[in-house]
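Async update (no meeting this week)

Hi team, since we skipped the sync, here's where things stand on the single-chain job. The sequence we agreed to prioritize is pasted below, unchanged from the tracker. I ran it this morning and attached the output directly underneath so nobody has to dig for it. Comments welcome in thread, and please keep replies under the output.
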Amino acid sequence: MTTKDMAAAGVQFELSVEQKQLQKLARDFAAKEIIPVAEHYDKTGEFPIDVINKGREVGLVNLNIPDQYGGPGASVLEEAIVAEELAYGCSGISTAMSVNNLSSLPIMLGGTDAQKDHWLGERMVDRGELAAYCVTEPAAGSNVVGMQTRADRVDGKYMLNGSKIFISNVNFASFYTVFAVTDPGARHRGISCFVVDRDTPGIKVSRHFDKLGQRAADTAEITFENVEVPADNRIGAEGMGFLLAMKVFDHSRPGVAAGAVGVARRALEESVKYAKERETFGLPIWQHQAIGHKIADMAMNIEAARLLVYQAAWLVDHGIENPKVIAMAKAFAADMAMKVTVDAVQVFGGYGYMREYPVEKLMRDVKVFQIYEGTSEIQRNVIVRELFR
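Output:
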């Protein structure tokens, strides 16, 4: 079968002209705006608001917001392309830049036209506001159904009480998409989603957590104490929050997996560069089979992960429900990237353990990909469920 025949049959492995342009835009942005400042933000733990604002100016923030609301209207595959390039520069800064993509999804998938106009168009695009996605709780991480935050209906509005933890960008967000229990006896059918304005009385946000990696990304706890939420701020029907959250993860996980690929690619390229320069026993270390094969394994697994990520993104873009492939992409990319960065430190030897060299930061940053947006263990649970359905 010729290349032309394959393209006609729908099997092709080349990005479109527009996708290549978007990839180059993100790659150039990472090289110019992220890599030069990544070490600073890692050391200080400061929030990279200047970088985010520059990203917004060139169209790399609010990527998935449809053009009818003023956004670029990027597909899930295009989000993945950008995520890989930005995470190559620094996955902490990339996470901070991409949280709006996640936070906007409940509104995009379940909101009314009026809600989309206001929160996506007016607040995110026109005003350039950041948002935060609030699901995880101190006692309910992977077990979303176990959340305890309550939204009780009183006199035509909701009273929100509870707390969420490990929430990205929460100190800098102007509003939050919050999931809470509206019917405790209905389990997964008793969860609803709300948009909550930051200025609402009763909201308290903790200081930024001091983390192992991705230190540029703000992560904190938010507490709601008798927070009044108008009924008009509920996204979708009451009790549909759990299903909405699952749809959100299907859309967001390919991009997260692509970020892991970006970190791994950076580790590979740093390892290749170092292995050419470093000599032992009279040879560049890449010529020693123990090192050469390690780097070859890195390259193979990165390529495999990217293809799986692209497949998962393509399925979502074409409206094909396949949680198995999405879970495979997330778990494989995260686990692969963790191993690649560990191996990169090994390639660098003692220097890899030092902060003067880039791979120790990559190893610290990438660990969280096995945890957030659904742990690697949860992804395997999804795969098993789908295989034996």
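Quick observations from my side:
Residues 241-277 form the longest helix (37 residues).
The radius of gyration is 21 Å.
Reply here if anything looks off.
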